[in-house]
Amino acid sequence: MISKVWTCTLQGIQASIIEVEVDLSDGLPSFDLVGLPDSAVRESKERVRSAIKNSGFPFPIKRITVNLAPAHIRKVGVSFDLPIALGILAASGLIKKEKLQNMICIGELSLDGDIRPVHGILSLVHSALKNNFQQCILPSTNAHEGAIIEEMILWSASDLKSVVNHLNGISSLPPAPIPCFQSHIQNRHEPDFRDIKGQEAAKRALEIAAAGSHNIMMIGPPGSGKTLLSRCLPSILPPLSFEESIVITKIYSVAGLLPEHQGLLTKRPFRAPHHTTSPSALVGGGQNPRPGEVSLAHTGVLFLDELPEFKRNVLEMLRQPLEDGNVTISRTYGHITYPSQFMLVAALNPCPCGFHPDITKCTCTPMQIRRYTNKISGPLLDRIDLYIEAAAIQYEELTDQNFSESSTDIATRVNQAVKIQAERFKQEDIFFNAQMKPQQVSKYCKLGQAETELLKEVFAKLNLSARGYHRILKVSRTIADLDHSKNIQIHHLSEAIQYRNFDDVK
Domain 2-167, CATH 3.30.230.10 — does that match? Predict the structure, then answer.
């Protein structure tokens, strides 16, 4: 007596179709599970046994063999409980086997037969659709997330007994709800640029960074507003496209950070890990690899406050995702890749005490200052597009009753620049100027004679690397887009150059 049920397993934010084969044969009663399962899958035997009994069905006193095929793919998670239970019931003759054809079943079982939510539903349902499955039974708590895939017939299940009744035609499971696209990653109220006194140069740099998705570093004494400026940044970021929303929702779902009854995420993420963060927490990892902060910040902002306080080996791990836009985690059983196309925003003090070069407050020696700034390696600094000084706020600025420009006004200019880039890159696989490759820089960042002479002089004076040269051109292109200029002019290039030298703002 053999039955077959189909389900999915996660591989990063992608998923693979798994065939659950159940065989009931005569012999000493046993329950064997094969097919490269992890510990969570192996433990499903006891959950399935109790769930079947407590749902009012007889558990077969047979030799039970469950094979998860293909055997070379590692099976991870608790989503196999429901398909294994349905396979056993089908092999026992309690479910018509033909009812399970062309259907994906996903869900964790409690001991009393209730179906609990699982991680990564959006990826699992999307994989089922791509493999031409027409129906899917999934936990009711995950129904809002699964409903994003509108082309699939989704059934919302709360317990094992109702699923069996649905398959046998006794009653029908409720369909998944109509998808809602009004959800957000953040529920907190964002600060507005209009509430920040002074720091006009820093605001201008953040506007450029938001428009072109450029990495930025702010240097200034304690209390100058670096953290507040950074937390205002999400208020001027361009809206997510539907494709970007799908990807970030998959990442948060796989990581288990998507709230219950949550649909599509429509707001760019803002992640601010503490400086004690471990390497695996920052870039991803673990025995069963999970996305790290760089992936949770995909399409959004990764804010690192007090940058030199991070361990050097942690910071060095940022180099590859900053350059490639993805993170590949290798294990003995295979490789998992997570996207990590984020904007890095870093903040630091100019010295250990924070008050350099104010000689009335700073007590640091030149050696201490050098040791402090040297915690950040040259290769990492080379990947920063804009350096800006956040100077101490003066009393007159703090007591000024006039409001600064609001985030809404700045966001309008940013969105206009983003639309220009969208039109420029509509035939390319990128969205922002910061993502341009060398051949695209050559194509879209052409300079006139005067601009070429200026950049040649600066290249020698600042001892720029090839990466630094290209990043100046990318920032210049973004400044020109904000100015609605077709060509990069000398004042666009000059402004980009002034943001480039780290030594000038220390």
Answer: yes
